[in-house]
Inverse folding.
């Protein structure tokens, strides 16, 4: 379908869904929003803020002070405006994804894949449901996708600013800095099939990355400064960013942290918190090194890894990984296990709400039921990420074969 | 010989000097108020008051130095030491069991009738030890003194609700201001092991006087029972310690013939055999019901009028067994239907709704029985085990939303694992009608080490405290505190047998994913020829 028709059509559909009479339980759902992104907690923070109570003096509100000032002044939050704001955010993200695709194809105008890309984002249930639940993870995804779009359009400052905003909303996003900064400096065109080293000397890279990191830090500091002014102190730091390191709220989610630290012995808690936090930082550099020929692909893999391992993930993070896969059609034929991965995701998407209800709603199941389904979810995510890495690398190997006959004769494997 | 005489003389002289330096006048008063209720129960309120004339609370700034020596004859030394060591100005401790029924029993003699333990103290600031440290020392010392788990009244339960818990006495004019600390432990249960140390604080123990009625077998069998320790400072009198015990007995339950007649012997299984010699006054007051034909039999009261009969225990000849009979009644009929003149200004019902273990709904229904508008304060000191969504607070009156009837005076949000919430509000109750407050609540998820041994039972939540701002004429114009029953919240539990399994399984999954990604990123790709049969296997490095 033509993009000019399809895109507005999708947004209208999305808006109609937002205004549909949805069950109230959606906004309380643990899979769709986490303590850091939950809508009722945002409302509570706004209420306290308006009534002169420091929202960061308690443990319920963990959103950024900038959201607080935005929604208490410029955009008053109610059911009607919320539907509009969240739809607009999703639309912006889909638009960014389409423009990222165009930049990658070096196309100025429309492409035949535009409508598909917008649809994959706007109709992805992993994106749609958290957004209908008014989870602020929608804003985090939008900030990241816009940052990626500006990066592939070589608008470095805007890209870094958007990444800083994304980082401000969810601290773990700072891990995107190495691939995104390098993406600003290199071409967005797919080099997956013909790997090549970075077209800079290592001195150049260090110097350029240093400049970009400084710029990014300046944006981040400016946002933090603004937040401190809004919050009237630095109390917000501990409650928002600090929560990522100390996991004070053990509400269940699809991730691997919550049950681990519910069951953790008290004297080992700090050690494992440190291990889990450092584990996240292990990935960006190797990914950048291995995918130095196509840094957008490194960003893509990183979304999958963070969606699996971050402290407070929701299915919106997984949705970002799934939707971004639409940018890399050249890798599809090399995926080893797309169908099993799909089935595991389907399986866990049914298990998660079911066992959540059995444990916390009807009280007929126990916590292990839900924990087991988060493990299944973790396996599904791990399988998807591993497969994406494999396919991305294999594209480069297979690209060297001249024709199909060659391909029949050779089996690619790892030493 | 002479040396020995001199020695004795020196001791006597020294003792004399010491006592002359510090003559403390102490007074002891005891009283028992017996009140038959219209539902057939009898409320008995014991109070034992010791007064140190012209005593003054310790200034916290002198805490580092040696305290002036204290000599007590009637005043309980164990309690006095705790008060001096922590420079407590005013202290209230209550340990209760049961639900106080305001509608049938009226207001209690002692306000603190919340289920479980409640401790609150006013302390002056300043000095080398902070208020919070002294509060910690105080609750630990009292826990030891009364054999109660007051040590658990830690910072996770401590608030400072100064609006509702105003000092009952005076605050001495130290240069620094006073601070309130308040904590409740609704799951604490009062029993014999608390009563024994309580009785030890009395000058006559339970050997004589009114205290000889304090028979644990009967007291802890009562429908409602609770003990209290109240210390206050009165500017023109001194330091007063009031030990109180309240019980609501149900004589109908004890009687074989279903009658509500009672006597001291039937209620306590004891009579008063002798008076306490050191008591300056020792009285039993019996409230005489007006509406029913009740008579008090043997012995004649010392004084009586239409409403009350007074017995002076000090003028005791032989044993005293106050008794009340309803001669015209063959069996007691429980009064059904609402009483024509309610004994309380209002009734409160607080419930936690919703079956989910992660969210719920708090509902407070307050009925004003007065024909005039009533202002009341409403206080929640909620541990972080239940967290309010204050933005969802709705007030409904006669089916109409009336958010203007509630005004939030102060709110301190809870901090998980650290601090309870404190919500102080003012409500306006329209005349003779019912007000409904509803609020969404969040039930948090606890670490597995934070759950009590019987985790599935749930957690007791402290009562809300309301304070109708209408003056109660019967209580000398004092403002009453009204406690709601406690709540039980069912929190989600993890599987307690799982720590090792979870560590193993989660770590395995993480290692698996990390390992596969690491493998792919680091290991070398090779192309292996599939053409059969190669003379020698050819491997091309990519």
């Amino acid at each position: 379908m033509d993009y000019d028709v399809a895109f507005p059509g999708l947004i209208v559909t999305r808006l109609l869904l937002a205004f549909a009479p949805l069950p109230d339980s959606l906004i309380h759902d643990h899979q769709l929003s986490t303590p850091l992104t939950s809508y009722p907690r945002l409302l509570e923070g706004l209420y306290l803020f308006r009534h002169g109570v420091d929202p960061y003096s308690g443990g319920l509100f963990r959103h950024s002070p900038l959201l607080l000032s935005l929604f208490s002044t410029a955009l008053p939050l109610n059911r009607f405006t919320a539907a509009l704001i969240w739809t607009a955010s999703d639309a912006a993200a889909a638009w960014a994804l389409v423009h990222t695709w165009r930049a990658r194809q070096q196309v100025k105008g429309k492409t035949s894949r535009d409508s598909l890309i917008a649809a994959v984002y706007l109709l992805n249930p992993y994106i749609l449901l958290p957004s209908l639940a008014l989870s602020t993870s929608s804003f985090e995804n939008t900030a990241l996708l816009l940052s990626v779009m500006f990066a592939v359009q070589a608008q470095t400052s805007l890209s870094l600013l958007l990444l800083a905003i994304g980082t401000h909303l969810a601290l773990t996003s700072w891990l995107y800095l190495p691939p995104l900064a390098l993406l600003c400096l290199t071409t967005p065109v797919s080099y997956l099939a013909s790997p090549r080293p970075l077209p800079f000397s290592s001195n150049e890279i260090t110097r350029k990355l240093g400049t970009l990191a400084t710029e990014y830090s300046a944006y981040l500091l400016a946002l933090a400064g603004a937040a401190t002014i809004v919050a009237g102190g630095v109390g917000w730091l501990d409650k928002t960013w600090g929560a990522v390191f100390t996991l004070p709220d053990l509400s269940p989610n699809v991730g691997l942290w919550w049950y681990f630290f519910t069951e953790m012995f008290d004297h080992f808690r700090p050690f494992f918190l440190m291990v889990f936090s450092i584990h996240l930082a292990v990935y960006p550099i190797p990914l950048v090194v291995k995918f130095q020929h196509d840094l957008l692909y490194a960003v893509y893999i990183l979304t999958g890894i963070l969606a699996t391992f971050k402290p407070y993930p929701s299915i919106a993070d997984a949705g970002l990984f799934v939707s971004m896969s639409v940018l890399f059609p050249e890798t599809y034929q090399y995926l080893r296990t797309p169908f099993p991965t799909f089935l595991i995701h389907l399986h866990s998407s049914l298990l998660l709400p079911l066992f959540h209800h059995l444990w916390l709603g009807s009280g007929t199941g126990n916590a292990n039921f839900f924990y087991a389904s988060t493990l299944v979810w973790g396996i599904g995510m791990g399988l998807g990420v591993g497969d994406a890495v494999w396919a991305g690398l294999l594209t480069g190997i297979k690209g060297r074969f001249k024709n199909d006959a060659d391909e029949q004769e050779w089996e690619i494997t790892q030493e | 010989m002479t040396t020995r005489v001199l020695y004795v003389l020196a001791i006597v002289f020294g003792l004399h000097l010491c006592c002359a330096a510090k003559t403390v006048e102490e007074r002891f008063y005891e009283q028992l108020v017996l009140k038959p209720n219209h539902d057939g129960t009898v409320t008995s309120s014991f109070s034992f008051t010791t007064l140190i004339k012209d005593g003054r609370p310790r200034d916290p700034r002198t805490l580092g130095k040696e305290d002036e020596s204290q000599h007590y004859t009637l005043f309980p030394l164990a309690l006095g030491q705790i008060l001096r060591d922590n420079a407590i100005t005013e202290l209230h401790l209550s340990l209760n069991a049961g639900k106080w029924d305001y509608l049938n029993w009226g207001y209690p003699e002692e306000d603190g009738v919340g289920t479980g333990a409640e401790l609150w103290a006013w302390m002056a600031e300043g000095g080398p030890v902070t208020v919070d440290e002294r509060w910690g020392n105080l609750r630990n010392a009292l826990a030891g003194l009364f054999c109660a788990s007051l040590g658990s009244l830690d910072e996770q339960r401590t608030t400072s609700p100064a609006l509702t818990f105003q000092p009952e006495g005076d605050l001495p004019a130290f240069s620094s201001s006073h601070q309130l600390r308040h904590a409740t432990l609704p799951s604490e249960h009062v029993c014999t092991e608390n009563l024994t140390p309580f009785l030890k604080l009395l000058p006559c123990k339970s050997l004589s006087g009114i205290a000889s009625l304090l028979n644990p077998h009967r007291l802890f069998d009562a429908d409602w029972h609770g003990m209290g320790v109240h210390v206050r400072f009165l500017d023109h009198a001194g330091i007063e310690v009031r030990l109180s015990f309240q019980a609501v007995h149900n004589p109908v339950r004890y009687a074989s013939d279903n009658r509500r007649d009672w006597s001291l012997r039937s209620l306590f299984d004891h009579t008063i055999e002798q008076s306490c010699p050191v008591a300056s006054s020792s009285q039993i007051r019996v409230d005489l019901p007006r509406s029913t034909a009740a008579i008090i039999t043997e012995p004649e009261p010392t004084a009586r009028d239409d409403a009350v009969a007074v017995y002076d225990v000090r003028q005791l000849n032989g044993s005293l067994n106050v008794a009340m009979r309803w001669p015209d009644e063959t069996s007691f009929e429980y009064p059904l239907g609402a009483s024509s003149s309610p004994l309380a200004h209002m009734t409160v019902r607080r419930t936690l709704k919703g079956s989910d273990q992660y969210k719920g709904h708090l509902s407070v229904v307050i009925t004003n029985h007065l024909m005039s508008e009533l202002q009341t304060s409403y206080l929640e000191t909620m541990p972080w085990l239940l967290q309010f969504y204050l933005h969802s607070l709705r007030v409904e009156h006669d089916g109409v939303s009336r958010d203007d009837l509630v005004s939030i005076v102060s709110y301190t949000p809870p901090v998980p694992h650290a601090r309870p919430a404190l919500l102080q509000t003012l409500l306006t109750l329209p005349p003779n009608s019912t007000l409904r407050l509803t609020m969404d609540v969040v039930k948090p998820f606890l670490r597995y080490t934070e759950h009590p041994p019987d985790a599935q039972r749930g957690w007791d939540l402290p009562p809300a405290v309301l304070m109708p701002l209408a003056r109660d004429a019967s209580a000398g114009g004092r403002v009453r505190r009204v406690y709601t029953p406690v709540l039980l919240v069912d929190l989600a539990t993890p599987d307690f047998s799982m720590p090792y399994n979870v560590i193993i399984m989660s770590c395995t999954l993480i290692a698996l994913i990390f390992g596969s990604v690491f493998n792919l990123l680091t290991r070398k790709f090779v192309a292996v020829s599939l053409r059969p049969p190669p003379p020698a296997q050819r491997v091309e490095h990519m």
Observations:
- Chain B has three domains: 20-325, 346-489, 499-541.
- Chain B touches chain A through 62 residues (CB under 8 Å).
- Residues 20-325 of chain B form one domain.
- The radius of gyration of chain B is 31 Å.
